[in-house]
């Protein structure tokens, strides 16, 4: 028997305080008792977005007003090959109710990991917990200027930050990392970049692997548990494959367009980026020649959002 192909639309619905709505799958359905993002299978002739609107009306009694693509996940279940098409719903009318008797819960994004979900959902949970922008610190700034810019960025609601300072000596970078971790506490997730030997010294930080580190360590698998964020810099299909192998939670994909800092690197362009993202199951930030204004375009090609240095830095880097 050939395997069933299921295309499913599901919603990460956020309220004004940033809580996310999840539902418990009823007893009579597959994956009974597990929690899910509300949604369901596309009907013949429907687009994913049309199915989303219909499902949220049927299952929750709400009218969707604003939805944006968040992530597409391809997952092979024992019974079906699923394409889970996840959207973010930030505006709706009505009050969600369990129209099919299902239990509902509004939870903080960080609590998502405490609710058992179908295996296909893991990348969607990561996507729901991540913001749409990833700020990377500019090169050649002294620690004082970096701290000043980081404070401004945090005040402007930066929630994901990579401390990249290749100009600093190791000891200076490590001192700075301690200070930046203090600034970020309770506000933003800090990603550090450096030798894996330092991992144990910064347990509160995530780690961003260079493509070179990815090549070196991919075969060893994930260097630390799921409780810490692991990211990697990717530039092509081969590196994305290594990122999947090492178990990266998210990646940057670059360069999308020509940049001032790397004029020699051949840009991917949006079309090629779209194809690469379609073949990768975790959140992708597009980087290189993109600006904070390109968020919608990023979502349209399946990316989580945009990452960058100069165009994202408060004082222009
Ligand atoms: N809605 C939803 N479905 C998910 C998620 N994760 C996941 O693996 N799935 C799978 C479970 C099911 O195989 C399929 C969705 O099926 P469904 O039972 O919700 O479909 P439906 O709402 O159209 O319900 P029905 O009319 O078939 O009863 O996708 C998720 O987060 N949300
Ligand atoms: Mg459903």
UniProtKB/TrEMBL annotation:
Gene3D superfamilies: Aldolase class I, Nucleoside Triphosphate Pyrophosphohydrolase
UniProt xrefs under InterPro entries: Aldolase_TIM, Mutator_MutT, MutT-like, MutY_C, Nudix_hydrolase, NUDIX_hydrolase-like_dom_sf, NUDIX_hydrolase_CS, NUDIX_hydrolase_dom
Residues engaged in binding Mg(2+): 39, 59
Entry's EC annotation: 3.6.1.55
Reactions catalysed: 8-oxo-dGTP + H2O = 8-oxo-dGMP + diphosphate + H(+); 8-oxo-GTP + H2O = 8-oxo-GMP + diphosphate + H(+)
MF (Gene Ontology): 8-oxo-7,8-dihydrodeoxyguanosine triphosphate pyrophosphatase activity; 8-oxo-7,8-dihydroguanosine triphosphate pyrophosphatase activity; 8-oxo-dGDP phosphatase activity; 8-oxo-GDP phosphatase activity; metal ion binding
Domain of life: Bacteria
Residues covered by the Nudix hydrolase domain: 3-129
PANTHER family registered for this protein in UniProt: 8-OXO-DGTP DIPHOSPHATASE, NUDIX HYDROLASE FAMILY PROTEIN
Family: Belongs to the Nudix hydrolase family.
Protein name (record): 8-oxo-dGTP diphosphatase
């Amino acid at each position: 028997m050939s395997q069933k192909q299921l295309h499913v639309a599901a919603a990460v619905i956020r309220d004004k305080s940033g809580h996310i709505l999840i539902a418990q799958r009823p007893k009579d359905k597959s994956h009974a008792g597990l929690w899910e993002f509300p949604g369901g299978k596309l009907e013949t002739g429907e687009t994913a977005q049309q199915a989303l609107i219909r499902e949220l009306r049927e299952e929750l009694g709400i009218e969707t007003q604003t939805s944006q693509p968040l992530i597409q996940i391809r997952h092979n279940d024992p019974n079906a090959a699923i394409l889970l098409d996840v959207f973010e719903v930030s505006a709706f009318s009505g009050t969600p109710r369990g129209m099919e008797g299902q239990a509902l819960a509004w939870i903080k994004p960080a609590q998502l990991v405490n609710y058992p979900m179908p295996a296909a959902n893991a990348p969607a949970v990561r996507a729901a917990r991540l913001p749409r922008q990833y700020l990377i610190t500019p090169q050649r700034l002294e620690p004082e200027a970096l701290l000043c810019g980081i404070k401004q960025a945090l005040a402007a609601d930066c929630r994901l930050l990579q401390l990249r300072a290749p100009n600093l000596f190791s000891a200076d970078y490590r001192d700075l990392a301690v200070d930046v971790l203090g600034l970020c506490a309770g506000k933003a997730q800090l990603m550090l970049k450096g030798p894996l030997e330092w991992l144990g010294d910064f347990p509160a930080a995530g780690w961003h692997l260079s493509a070179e580190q990815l090549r070196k360590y991919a075969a060893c698998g994930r260097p630390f548990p799921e409780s810490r964020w692991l990211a990697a810099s990717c530039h092509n299909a081969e590196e994305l494959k290594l990122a999947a192998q090492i178990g990266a939670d998210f990646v940057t994909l670059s360069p999308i367009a020509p940049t001032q800092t790397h004029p020699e690197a051949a840009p991917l362009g949006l079309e090629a980026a779209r194809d690469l993202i379609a073949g990768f199951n975790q959140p992708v930030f597009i980087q290189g020649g993109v600006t904070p204004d390109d968020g919608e375009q990023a979502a349209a090609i399946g990316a989580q959002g945009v990452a960058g240095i100069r165009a994202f830095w408060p004082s222009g880097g």
